[in-house]
Amino acid sequence: MARSDLGEALVACVQRIAGARKPASTAALTTAVGAPRATVQRHLARLVRAGRLTRIGVGPATRYELARRAIGRTEPAQPLQPRYAAPDWSPAAKALRAELQQPLGARKPVSYERRFADAYVPNESALLPAALATALHAEGRMPGQQPAGTYARKVLEPLLIDLAWSSSKLEGNRYSLLDTQELFRLGRDDANAADADAVMLLNHKEAIEFLVDAVPAYGLTVPVVSNLHGILLQGLLADTEALGTVRSKVVNITGTTYSPSQVPALLGEMLAQIVAQAARTKNPAEAAFFLWVNLAYLQPFEDGNKRTSRLAANIPLMLYNCAPLAFLDVDPDDYATAMIGIYERQDATVAAELFAWTYRRSIDRYGAVLRSVSAPDPFRLRYRRLLTEALQAVVLGERVLAQVVRELDVDAPDRARFLAMARAELEHLDVHNCGRFRLGFAPVQRWVARGRPA
Known about the structure:
By secondary structure, the chain is mainly alpha-helical. The protein has 22 helices and five strands.
């Protein structure tokens, strides 16, 4: 069934079920149209974005009904359009995509080939075309000399939503973007404990926050990647010992003839090698792409390898203060095809074009966000000197911030806002950014070691 035909069939099913005065569940719609659940979920999401359907509830309680403006419509329905145009695939990518869409029985079974990583020499080899890697680095780079991670910190709030939602959606997560925003506003609580989709999203949020803090301090290392996996899969793996640990269990991937290596010693060796190769690669776009495809290809963990690879790809970009990679608007089918090209052919053609397409969307998105927050804040400029004095008093004098603020020459109407600003700075204060408050590394390290008393 064509995409537009399936979309219209779903609208008709929702309208028929709504006639019985009850919204339609995903399970009921999947049964009604006879399509795979994941396919139905993607089409339902498109229908909601197009304003044809309204989503009610979240998680297992999700239901769908006709949008108000769609009820009673008599004009012919227009074919559904994707939110954005698909990548403009090159002839080589189109040819590879056609080959990879053959039935599984017509494709050769393959296993892990370590030479895909072994043959890669940082700064000599390349998975991205050289001109493309150079262009993406130039387009994504934050202007000026800034500490590592500055770009990510400045766009953290939208990044948490975009990357968490986009990455989770590629795993089949059923939450809408608005549902995700509401979930993040409410936070992790007992009400969400039994909802795997909510746990997945909240884990993404915490993993991104971990990267923003850890990458400037530790760089790209195996412990950072392992902790990233542990945070992403917390509460989702029955065996907590498997969190952040190279797997000893067999892993199979549906929809492909690829069988990952099942040898723990090889998995550990290749994980360390891949991380080291990415860390030595000078172009952050090339390093991000190399890390993304190789971690997914290796499958070093028991579960969650693809989502770990997507977030890990941001580490080189953070280190070089480039726009983060949020995998905005990536179609799950395109993503799966890109991965299968790596799994079965070690051919990065489709993956490279998808990466460039979605990274440029991220660059545009976060460039606009950055411009909106780049104008000088008159309040901060007015109290810049007193802010420095307040932070110095807390870190060096071991004094309570609220008392310090009462003693400073801050206008009474401004004290609450000034206190909030100072607290926010103290939350992120560390050795990598303390110089702007004329604080030395050693005092800040001692203050952090004491638990950041404020």
